[in-house]
């Protein structure tokens, strides 16, 4: 149970990340990813990367610059503009459903206007899931992009094989999760590679 703890990524690197050791049991028609991050980076960085043999950016949550998040499904992306202000932690959730292609996005517990992406697509289940790096290979440690490495703190990481509601997003923000996700901050099976610390 990692409640009240954070992963600290202290410096830009090509070989430091957190490998999540859980996977969905079957290909995904729906999913939601949530996490909290705290950084003063202004360059692009990757928060959550889910790579399969078929597609590096099967699922990717990336922040290309302050005030913007980019969310990939199956190698295609939509972006969401968010407020920029005093450095404080940002909680984001992004969800997608295959039947409509609708992407839901929440910033600090508030829903943003929905967008469409990859209607009818299926996300593969055989994946490598990495926090803090943009995977360029479906082999753990098989290739990373140093300029997109995350520097800062990350916590409250969750992934469901369903869509969720705004009330559930707010529960995830407080680590009081309503139902068992594929993985979550209270039961995260992980392996630290390189220089990442749990504080």
UniProtKB/TrEMBL annotation:
Q: What is its main location?
A: secreted
Q: Detail the disulphide connectivity of this chain as listed in its UniProt entry.
A: 34-93
Keyword list, A-Z: Calcium, Disulfide bond, Metal-binding, Secreted, Signal
What cofactors does this protein use? Ca(2+)
Compartment(s) of residence: Secreted
The UniProt note on the cofactor reads as follows: Binds 2 calcium ions per subunit.
Q: Which family does it belong to?
A: Belongs to the pentraxin family.
On subunit structure and binding partners, the annotation says: Homopentamer. Pentaxin (or pentraxin) have a discoid arrangement of 5 non-covalently bound subunits.
UniProt protein name: Pentraxin family member
Which species does the entry assign this protein to? Brachypteracias leptosomus (short-legged ground-roller)
């Amino acid at each position: 149970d990692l409640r009240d703890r954070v992963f600290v990524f202290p410096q830009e690197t090509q070989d430091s990340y957190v490998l999540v050791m859980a996977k969905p049991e079957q290909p995904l028609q729906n999913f939601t990813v949530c996490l909290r991050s705290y950084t003063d980076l202004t360059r692009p960085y990757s928060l959550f990367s889910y790579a399969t043999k078929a597609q590096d950016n099967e699922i990717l949550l990336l922040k290309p610059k302050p005030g913007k998040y980019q969310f990939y499904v199956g190698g295609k992306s939509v972006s969401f503009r968010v407020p920029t202000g005093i450095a404080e932690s940002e909680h984001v959730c992004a969800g997608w459903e295959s039947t409509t292609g609708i992407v839901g996005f929440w910033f600090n517990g508030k829903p943003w206007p929905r967008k469409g992406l990859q209607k009818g697509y299926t996300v593969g289940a055989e994946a490598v899931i990495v926090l803090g790096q943009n995977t360029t290979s479906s082999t753990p440690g098989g290739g990373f992009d140093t300029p997109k490495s995350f520097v800062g703190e990350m916590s409250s990481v969750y992934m469901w094989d369903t869509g969720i509601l705004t009330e559930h997003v707010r529960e995830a923000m407080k680590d009081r999760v309503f139902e068992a996700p594929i993985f979550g901050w209270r039961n995260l099976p992980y392996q630290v590679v390189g220089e990442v610390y749990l504080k």
